[in-house]
User: Which sequence fits this backbone?
């Protein structure tokens, strides 16, 4: 197919043709900018990251003023406290975003790394080298810090990015992108490495996810509904992120005093994140020693408990267990709520996870090596934890440096996605007149 | 999402609900079978591959008889000689397919390989391990040898496969699958590791590419139309393969006596394959010494030539140059036809390739190191050749062992896809009660 053929993405009549034309123009500009950045040295890219960090800090007031306007509009529109919190940019949060860019500058550049290479028996010199993807589309909800992270990760990995950042953060994102684009120009790089399609609203997002041949990947980051929409409508390759219906299985051979802190950390250290626990599975043999105290601590922490009948048996006085339904097994609460089920075996726990899990993170607490090995082998998820909190599924925590999201799909990238996951490879074959016999 | 929720793929009313139900049942059986195979040792898988090879050879007569019926029907339906040739299975070709399975048994098993691992400062032991994808859907055209290759590659990499093999090869594929399924059972493995949805025709293929949560990847293998259909209609992740609008650029600093054999090999050694050359770009400075003889040899080899005006100038007497149009620059001939254009610079060649290339394979012939470096850096393709035939873009030729296809997309896998490309990874994190501060 031709990389520049706009007809590829206008076959869908539900997308307004003018919006499509506008988005395709943005994508074409991004593609041209990406071709300029691709050969740039790490030094050039790191210098730009440092300059962006300084520029963001210098522009803190302009950014927070724009953010205050978004916040006021958001409160008026009745956004939930959680959403308002994600939307808010304090001076400190701007400084944190700038620091994140400086941290990126300190990471290795994946571009140019040789993945594998050899001289073949016939003398052909073959090497597979990392190269940027090209143009990365990000579709996310109103979280201005994601804007800065996405731009930084894309730049460091040699890619252009096209952002759809959520209307509620429109003023804030515009202020941030203005600062970042101006900095790129001052650094002698194309401003179009960083663009937004927010002015076209939802149909702009749809056009972006259908810009085949111009956009190399679309990464949706947000709730299950957003991700499902992108997966259904996109014709550009998609990397799904983030939906985490996360389980903790407390095995018969678990140490209750190890299991409780892990459970409390996974459920309450930070709610509303995809690696927080949503369902607790307890082996019947572990229930007597573990459940009463665990349920009490959860209740004291303000966690609303949904349990099966065998769980209710172990509820201490004053702790309410709401009857759990299939809906509870299926739900990613992202709140101080937990589903609890007593199972008869590790196999039953694995079956429950296969039935209800989202393939994000699953954990077992046990001192039985065989049980740990069976659980890690049989559970099919991006990350499987043994005697550790599910909250460790995070690019920073796992040593990747930054992350652009956590993939819950199996293709290209699974689990936390760092810089390497924003690259592809190119086979380079050097011969001396070689032909195939 | 729940991995077993059939509603995920029945949202499309164009697919007959009964067909969908049937295909989802097949996919569910495949998933269950894959869970049995996933932990199998290399020894178990290799033994099954050897047994399959022997069983195929033993069943040669039954298979060729079924194939003869498909061939007769195909000829009656007026299939092109090329398609008939791909469809035909001689005793020798059955033996070759069996030998391919034995070769697979000799390759390393990617499953269980540790991609990266470390002990983090906090003492968490982290490793990223290769695991099978799960269920691989293959949608291809009537080529029975692909059936055997796909089954072998899926089995060796620990995956179940669901095949849609093209109606024209229906009887042949059925005979082959019967042999392979019987062998699996004799080896103590589930027959449902290998299934077909051919009985449901095209709507079965559509249901397969929409079985989200049950099928982990769909790999279309065939012409541009087939691949475009899958990309448009699939909701399961897709790996695009094969479309190759392949260019050879003869640089000003090329040795004509090296360039001609490379060109002839790339165009005529085997036509109808995706790594065959379709367009020749010649630097104006190289044209006088290179083009007349090259055009003559091409014409003598029976290649129909479509050229621009500057190419026609160099045509020797008796060699016809048909006027090239944009259609020619865009076409993957897969036949003894070639588009030829004279360009003024390497940059113009790169621009032409960016405009018309399909990102499969591009080649430069030059003795100028700087030119080779600029071409390999600026051309965005799965494989870039310097002074070598484009026909080397092949899993076997590049040292991957077998290949299931050649990816022309950037996600997950780019270029020839071998066993490793049929796996994903799983993070396994071992702690001792670790929680996040």
Assistant:
């Amino acid at each position: 197919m031709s990389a520049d053929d706009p007809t590829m993405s206008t076959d869908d009549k539900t997308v307004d043709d003018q919006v499509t034309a506008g988005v395709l123009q943005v994508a074409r500009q991004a593609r041209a900018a990406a071709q300029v950045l691709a050969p740039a040295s790490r030094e050039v890219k790191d210098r730009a990251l440092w300059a962006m960090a300084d520029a963001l800090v210098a522009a803190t007031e302009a950014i927070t003023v724009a953010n205050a306007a978004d916040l006021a509009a958001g409160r008026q529109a009745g956004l939930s406290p959680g959403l308002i919190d994600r939307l808010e940019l304090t001076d400190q949060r701007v400084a944190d975003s700038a620091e994140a860019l400086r941290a990126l500058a300190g990471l290795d550049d994946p571009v140019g790394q040789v993945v594998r290479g050899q001289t073949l028996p016939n003398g052909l010199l073959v090497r597979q080298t990392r190269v940027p993807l090209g143009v990365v589309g990000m579709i996310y909800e109103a979280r201005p810090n994601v804007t800065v992270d996405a731009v930084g990760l894309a730049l460091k990995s040699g890619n252009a990015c096209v952002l759809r950042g959520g209307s509620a953060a429109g003023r804030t994102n515009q202020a941030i992108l203005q600062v970042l684009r101006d900095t790129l120009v001052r650094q002698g790089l194309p401003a179009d490495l960083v663009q937004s399609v927010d002015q076209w609203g939802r149909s702009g997002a749809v056009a972006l996810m259908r810009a085949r041949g111009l956009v190399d990947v679309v990464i949706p980051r947000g709730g299950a509904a957003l991700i499902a929409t992108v997966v259904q409508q996109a014709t550009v390759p998609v990397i799904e992120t983030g939906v985490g219906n996360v389980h903790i299985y407390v095995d018969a051979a678990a140490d209750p005093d190890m299991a409780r802190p892990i459970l409390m950390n996974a459920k309450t250290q930070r709610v509303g994140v995809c690696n927080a626990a949503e369902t607790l599975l307890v082996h019947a043999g572990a229930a007597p020693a573990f459940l009463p105290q665990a349920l009490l601590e959860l209740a004291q922490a303000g966690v609303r408990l949904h349990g099966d009948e065998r769980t209710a048996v172990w509820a201490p006085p004053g702790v309410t267990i709401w009857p759990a339904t299939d809906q509870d097994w299926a739900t990613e609460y992202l709140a101080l709520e937990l589903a609890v089920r007593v199972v008869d075996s590790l196999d039953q726990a694995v079956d429950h996870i296969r039935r209800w899990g989202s393939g994000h993170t699953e954990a077992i607490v046990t001192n039985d090596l065989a049980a740990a090995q069976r659980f890690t082998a049989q559970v099919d998820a991006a990350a499987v934890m043994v005697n550790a909190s599910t909250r460790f599924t995070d690019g920073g925590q796992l040593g990747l440096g930054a992350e652009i999201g956590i993939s819950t799909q199996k293709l290209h990238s699974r689990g936390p996605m760092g810089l390497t996951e924003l690259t592809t490879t190119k086979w380079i074959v050097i011969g001396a007149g070689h032909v195939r016999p």
Notes: Residues 246-392 of chain B form a domain with the Aldehyde Dehydrogenase; Chain A, domain 2 fold (CATH 3.40.309.10).
